[in-house]
Structure formats: C-alpha cells, structure tokens
Amino acid sequence: MLDDDWAYPVRVSDLKQWAYCSRVFYYQTCLPDVRPTTYKMYAGREAGQSEIGREERRSLRAYGIVAGEREFDVPVRSARLGLRGEVDMVITVAGTGEVIPVDYKLTRIAGEPFQLQIAVYGMMLEEMRGVAVTRGFLYEIPLRRAEEIKIEKRLRAKALRAVEEMRRIVEREEMPMPVKNRHKCMACEFRRFCNDVV
Ligand code: SF4
C-alpha cells in the first residue's frame, strides 16, 4: 500500500467487488499482486475517458438540468470513513448551487452496488464541500441514459454498513467467508485461491 492508502484504505470503486463477494475485495485489496489488470478493467477505464469527451460537448438535459458547471474525475477523500475515490463527474447546478455526483457505467444492469457507490460519493462530497447532497445519477454509457438515485436515509445507512465491513476486512487482513451463492465461484478469477469452495 502507498502512504495515502493507509489513511484512506478503502476505494469507493471496490464496493462493486465487495457486493459480488467480500473475498474478491479481500484478494484485491490485501493481496493486490495476485490480480493482473484484465482487458475488461482496461476497457472500462477507456470507455470512461471517451465518455468524458462526449459529455463535455453535451448539454445537461439528460439530467433534467438547465444549466450548471461540470467537473470531471473529481478526487474525493474522507478520513472519517477511511475512503478514497474519484467521481466521474460532479455537477454544480446554476442558481441553487446543488452538488450532484454522476457515475458512468458500462453495464446496463444498475443494481444496488452502483447505488451504494453513488450514496458514498454523495456523503464524501457533503463532507468535503459542506453542502447537502440529496441525489446523484448513474449514466449508462451503452444506452446514453441517466438514472436518478435518491441519496436517502436507508441507502446511506446501507452504504455506511458496507464501508464499515470493508474497512474491517482491510484493517484485520482477515479472509472473509466464501460467497453463499456458489454459482458465482464458477466464473471467478480467484477460484484457484479458494480451496474451500467446490
Ligand atoms: S471463488 Fe467464490 S468465494 Fe472465492 S473469491 Fe471467487 S466468488 Fe468468492
């Protein structure tokens, strides 16, 4: 780990892996050398970058916003939550000053992990900028569609529980139990390290 990683041990983007199987998160974070950069990961980064180029030329209509300022690849940190990350885009709405995180995604399947990620970005922006963040957007690159996510109490609580558990795994370097749904193991790149799954 780098120095910065010790102060902020959990990356927001790891929420998706953690939600899939907490052991995948463990392998990636506590034993990072076991995982090469896969084509899928590389393609995801490339798609995000080219989407920024398009987004800069687009209006904010997809988000139902008339005017606002856009920032891209915004670094976020929270010592309180032990989290670090980078928001694909942050919109500051003209007139109201509302701050809205936007996360691009390659998949058409939204799912709760993506919502948790938006909630965490929202809470980190609140902490860093001293504003209330009540919503965010998931932008589906294949469909060019923005889905609004309300950052409400239930989602916040769930996101905080997830982050707490991720921090515990990192701090104790303790391998979690295998995933309950063993179908997931069939296609898992870490399968050879999990001797206790079929
Ligand atoms: S093989 Fe199964 S338990 Fe092991 S990391 Fe993969 S999904 Fe998780």
Put the structure in a nutshell.
With 198 residues, the chain is an alpha/beta fold. It has helices at 3-7, 15-20, 22-30, 39-57, 111-129, 153-172, 183-186, and strands spanning 10-11, 68-78, 83-93, 99-105, 135-140, 145-150.
Give the helices and strands, then pairings.
Blueprint: H1 3-7, E1 10-11, H2 15-20, H3 22-30, H4 39-57, E2 68-78, E3 83-93, E4 99-105, H5 111-129, E5 135-140, E6 145-150, H6 153-172, H7 183-186
Helix pairs in contact: 5-6
Number of strands: 6
Name the overall outline.
Answer: globular
For the residues shown, what is the average pLDDT?
Answer: 86
Measured between the Cα atoms of the first and last residue, the distance is 32 Å
CATH class: Alpha Beta
Q: Could you name the CATH topology?
A: Lambda Exonuclease, Chain A
- Helical amount among residues, as a percent range? 40-55%
Number of domains as seen in the coordinates: 1
Counted by DSSP, the helix tally is 7
**How big is the Rg?**
17 Å
- Strand content bin: 15-25%
Class computed from helices, strands and strand pairing: alpha/beta
Which architecture per CATH? Alpha-Beta Complex
| Major pleated sheet | 6 strands, mixed
The ordered string of helix (H) and strand (E) elements is: HEHHHEEEHEEHH
Poorly predicted spans: none
Bound molecules: iron/sulfur cluster
Written account of the structure:
The chain has 198 residues and is α/β, with parallel strands linked by helices. The protein has one domain (3-177): Lambda Exonuclease, Chain A, CATH 3.90.320. The chain contains seven helices and six strands. The chain has helices at 3-7, 15-20, 22-30, 39-57, 111-129, 153-172, 183-186, and strands at residues 10-11, 68-78, 83-93, 99-105, 135-140, 145-150. Strands 1, 2, 3, 4, 5 and 6 form a six-stranded mixed β-sheet that branches. α5 packs across α6 (153-172). The longest helix has 20 residues, at 153-172. The chain is globular, with a radius of gyration of 17 Å. The two termini are 32 Å apart. The model has no long low-confidence stretch (mean pLDDT 86). The site of iron/sulfur cluster (SF4) has 12 residues, from α3 and α7.
